[in-house]
Amino acid sequence: MEDFFLDIVYQNKLVKFRVVNPETPLSMLMTNLRHSVGSDGRLIFDFPSIDNTGAPLDYFFAKEDPEVHELRVLRPRIGKEDQRLADYNIHNGDQLFLVPDPFPG
């Protein structure tokens, strides 16, 4: 199996992220990304767990819609089905954004 990479953008930082298994559910990919460390031993991205109002934050992948230039959130589950990259037509080398999503506490 060839290497699968995504360009992940968060707060104007772009990181080429290697996905070991593109069939992994999005929720697991997000967990892996949140705990990924760079060559310096530090977390690649700093994910605040609360926003400036104190609301807890969750994070989602999003892809830019080329026609309207808006970010479309990739929901990790639809109904009872875990979603994967292929469900959103995400391919090797695609660029995804990380978007924070406050949820009521």
Q: How would you characterize the overall build of this protein?
A:
Strand 1 (4-10) and strand 2 form a beta hairpin. The strands form two sheets. The protein has a five-stranded mixed β-sheet with strand order 2-1-7-3-4, covered by helices on one side. By secondary structure, it is mostly beta strands. It has one helix spanning 26-34; strands at residues 4-10, 13-19, 57-65, 70-74, 77-78, 81-82, 95-102. The protein is built from one helix and seven strands.
Q: What tags apply to this protein structure?
A:
105 residues; two-stranded antiparallel ribbon; five-stranded mixed beta sheet; mainly beta
Order of helices and strands: EEHEEEEE
Radius of gyration: 14 Å
E-strand count: 7
How would you sum up the major sheet?
A: 5 strands, mixed
pLDDT < 50 stretches: none
Biggest β-sheet: strands ordered side by side in the sheet: 2-1-7-3-4
Which percent bin holds the helix content? under 10%
Based on secondary structure, the structural category is mainly beta
Average of pLDDT: 89
Question: What global shape is seen?
Answer: globular
Tally of separate helices: 1
- Give the CA-CA distance, first to last residue: 42 Å
Which helices and strands occur, and which strands form pairs?
Blueprint: E1 4-10, E2 13-19, H1 26-34, E3 57-65, E4 70-74, E5 77-78, E6 81-82, E7 95-102
Parallel strand pairs: 1-7
Antiparallel strand pairs: 1-2, 3-4, 3-7, 5-6
